[in-house]
Amino acid sequence: MMKKYILYIVLCLALASGLQAQPYTTPKRELRAAWVSTVYGIDWPNAGASPARQRAALTRIVDSLARNNFNAVCFQVRSMSDAMYRSAYEPWSSYLTGTRGKDPGYDPLAYCVSECHRLGLECWAWINPYRFSTGALWSTSQDMEARQHLLSWGKKKILDPAQQWTVDRIVDVCRDVVTHYDIDGVIYDDYFYPDNIPTTSAAGDYGEWKASGTQLSLADWRRANVNRMVKAVYQMIQAEKPYVRFGISPAGVACTDADLAASYGIDPCPSGSDWQYGTIFSDPVSWLKEHDLDFVSPQVYWKRGFKRADFSLIAPWWCKVAPTMGRQVYISSSIERLALASEFPEYAAQVQLTRDSSPEGAGGTIFWSVTNLYRRSGLARQLCSYLRSTVYRYPALLPQLPWRNHKAARELKVETPVRGNGQLLWHPVEGVRYTVYAVPAGVSESQWQGQVQYLLGMAYNPDDAADDVVYDLPRDKQQGYKWAVCVLDRYGNEYAPVWVH
Predict the structure, then answer these.
(1) Three-class SS string for 87-122?
(2) Residue 4 pLDDT more than 70?
(3) What span, in angstroms and rounded, lies between the C-alpha atoms of 185 and 173?
(4) Closest by alpha carbon to 236, among 286, 285, 177?
């Protein structure tokens, strides 16, 4: 047993040594996120656990990501037309207490936002727009109205995408989250129409299609219904809080059909099968083309060199297509089947390939899922630390969104921060965040130039606007350095530094 343990340690050290020598770049801006799935309690929470235990578990997850230089969390707040927050429309999720509609005694989304911001991460609300049930019908009082607007196929029941009620409900739900919580983004997953719902009279929406008087085929009509909802949510966010990002994480492959690709003026995807276009009626390239979102995060859940769907071909294709349409791609990468430390290089290489394929400062990765980075096993935790030692060596800011950029007319600065007891303190500027740098004493301020190797991370305003911003300096950055604090507005613009010596 001891020999096996020693061999394992030697392998891990050899891998780490070899990978450190790889030509990893260190971009100042990229998304580094993880999915935190709440449906079925996949990642969180433990249904029925006390509120204190649930909060503590969520804090451990966010803290682990922060320590390993991630910068965002995709927190699932609506998975079955339910809520992980105090919703004006839908019942509390059963995954909190074991009972749909039962108040858990606290607000998970509010807590997640607070913890993310306390630790310098963005919090994105992950929403499933259509799914209602995968089994029996829910029957709480808040479910009764939705039950009048369902489309079923097999055991799956979704809010009927063809109905205006459904579009309005999804817009209202998203508005509720956007306006009542200080979230930084809204992201959908890859569920649209039920898998393999037919395009014949056997389908529950066949009569609706016929009655609509449309000239579109049933398949095109379904895709148009989805597109109409996506556009309505994007327009609402732009009206309410235009700095909140909006994006969708579709299936990993699109536009393999040459004629479809040509209709969008792009080359077809060179690997994999586009099953989503005609099976769940999802057309992500149309969302990019119509500028109905800020980004896509396709689920490219395969490894490099996999014959049927090759990450090294699919991810670069997405990273080329989206920028030609003025939008961004953050590739979703799966670590769900992580089994050996020898697989660590694959995931680091996927991050680097995505970087190399994206415009500078405009790419990123979302890992499925956080359990496989943190909670599942020692091996998963080692991967998180391993990414920190290689591709995530330095912190990173999120990409800017030039098409939504409302740069302030004046330069924004903080009052000169005060240093003491291993902390920096300053008065908050309303509606902004901050970047904090530690620069060796021997490097002049003119040489600093906001370089990533000096970046410590982001700081957020406290919940109470009357409090000072407090930033804890790392132990190894408390002596022999000078520090810079810059305002970072909600659109990602970084302003001139204020120095502390």
Answers:
(1) CCCCCECHHHHCCCCCCCCCCHHHHHHHHHHHCCCE
(2) no
(3) 14
(4) 177
Q: Contact, 129 vs 188, CB < 8 A?
A: yes
Quick one: CA torsion of 389, 391, 392, 396, rounded to 10 degrees? 150
Contacts of 458 (CB under 8 A, 6+ apart): 71, 120, 121, 395, 397, 433, 434, 435, 436, 488
Strand order in the sheet with 455-460: 455-460, 432-440, 481-489, 498-500
Q: How far apart are CA 297 and CA 288, in angstroms?
A: 12
Amino acid (1-letter code) at residue 137: L
Count of H-run helices and E-run strands, the chain: 14, 19
The Cα 225–Cα 230 span in angstroms is 9
- Residue-wise pLDDT tens digits, 116-145: 999 999 999 999 999 999 999 999 999 999
0.90 exceeded by pTM: yes
CA neighbor of 335 nearest in space, from 360, 300, 309: 300
Helix locations, 213-310, DSSP H: 218-240, 258-263, 276-279, 284-289
One DSSP character per residue, 42-85 reads SSS--TTS-HHHHHHHHHHHHHHHHHTT--EEEEEEESSS-BSS
Report, as an integer, the average pLDDT of 40-69.
96
Q: Which amino acid is at 299?
A: Q
Distance between CA atoms of residues 259 and 500, nearest Å: 59
What digits encode the pLDDT tens for the residues 189-232? Answer: 999 999 999 999 999 999 999 999 999 999 999 999 999 999 99
Instruction: Annotate 377-389 with b (16+ C-beta within 10 A) or e (fewer).
Output: eebbbebbebbee
Q: List the Cα angle 77/80/84 in 5-degree steps.
A: 25
Task: Provide the pLDDT confidence category of residue 264 given band limits of 50, 70 and 90.
Answer: very high
